[in-house]
Amino acid sequence: MKRNIMSFLKTALILGALSQTMLAQSDLHLKANIPFAFVADGKPQAPGSYDLQQIRPSVIVLRNISTNSASLIRTTEGRREKGTEGRTLLLFNRYGDTYFLTQFTLDNNDIANRVNRSRSEWELAKQTQRPQLVVLNLVPPDNSTRMKNPSR
């Protein structure tokens, strides 16, 4: 009985270590300079430099580098906007002077990560015919869009 428990604990420990390794390999970091205030998943964000880290397929962490404030942003998988294929981008819906993060895409992926619409965006969408789509290219200086998390 004691041997079975020890065997089970060893297996659980190994599986836990493997799952953490797989999670660390899926971590994704993108850097973005966003020159305007915007809303992401209902949370207002100031203009500035941001680090976007995908920690789960449906969750990204949006961190303002200068203030070190961070927000968890829920996403869903969706289709890419026309003309965005092969590029790493942030896309925003613009209603007047208000910007809403709507999706981010990776250069080698046909799937876009769509940010859930907030209540305030739904309200503006009812009042406006169509938002203007604003696209920010993400091209780091070393031409690498993906950086592994150095802390793991």
* Biggest sheet overview: 8 strands, antiparallel
Note the total helix count: 2
Strand order of the largest sheet: 1-4-5-6-9-8-7-10
**Number of DSSP strand runs:** 10
Helical/strand content category: alpha+beta
* Approximate helicity band: 10-25%
The share of residues in extended strands comes to 35-45%
Distance between the termini: 36 Å
- The sequence of SSEs as H and E is HEEEEEEEEEHE
Q: Spans of 5+ residues with little confidence (pLDDT < 50)?
A: 15-26, 143-152
Which word captures the global form? globular
Mean pLDDT: 74
- Global Rg: 19 Å
Question: What does this 3D model show about the protein?
Answer:
The two termini are 36 Å apart. The strands form 2 sheets. Strands 1-4-5-6-9-8-7-10 form an 8-stranded antiparallel sheet. Strands 2-3 form a two-stranded antiparallel sheet. With 152 residues, the protein is α+β, with helices and mostly antiparallel strands. 22% of the residues lie in helices and 42% in strands. The chain has helices at 2-26, 119-127, and strands at residues 28-34, 38-40, 43-45, 48-56, 59-64, 70-79, 89-95, 98-105, 111-115, 132-137.
